[in-house]
Amino acid sequence: MSDLPAMSSEPILRTRGLTKRFGGLVAVNDVSLDLHVGEVHVVIGPNGAGKSTLTNLLSGDLPPTAGEVMFEGRDIAGCTSDHISRLGIGRSYQKTNIFLPFTVFENCRLAAQSRTPHALKVFRRVEGYAEINRLAYEAMESAGLSHRSARVAATLSHGEQRQLEIAMCLATQPRVLLLDEPLAGMGPHESQRMVELIKQLTADHAIMLIEHDMDAVFALAHRLTVMVNGEVLESGTPEQVRSSPAVQLAYLGGEELLHD
Amino acid sequence: MDFAFFLIQLLNGLQYGLLLFLVASGLTLVFGIMGIINLAHGSFYMVGAYLAWSLSSLTGSLTAAILLAIPLTVVLGMALERLLFRHLYQRDHLYQVLLTYGLILVFEELRSLIWGDDVLGVAVPALLNASIPLTENLSYPVYRLAISGVCLLLAAALYFLIQKTRLGMMIRAGASNRDMVQSLGIDIKLIYTLVFALGIALAAFAGMINAPLSSVFPNMGSQVLIICFVVVVIGGIGSVKGALAASLMIGLAETFGTVLVPEVAGMIVYVLMAIVLVWRPEGLFGGRA
Amino acid sequence: MNSRLQQFLPWFVVGLLALFPLLENTFYMQLLTKVLIMAIFAMSLDLLVGYTGLVSFGHAAYFGLAGYALALMVPKYEAVSLWWSLPAAIGVCALFALVTGMLVLRTRGIYFIMVTLAFAQMLFFVFHDTKLGGGSDGAYIYVKPAMKLGDFEMANLEKPAQFYWLALFLMAATYLLLRRVLGSSFGRALLGIKVNEHRMRALGFPVFRYQLASFTLSGSLAGIAGYLAAVQYGFGNPEILSWHQSGAVLMMGILGGMGTLYGSVIGAGAFVLLQEVLSNQAWFGAAAKHWQLAMGIFIMLVALYMPQGLAGLAQKFRGKPATEGADE
Question: Rounded to a whole number, what is the distance in angstroms from the first to the last CA of chain C?
Answer without folding.
Answer: 16
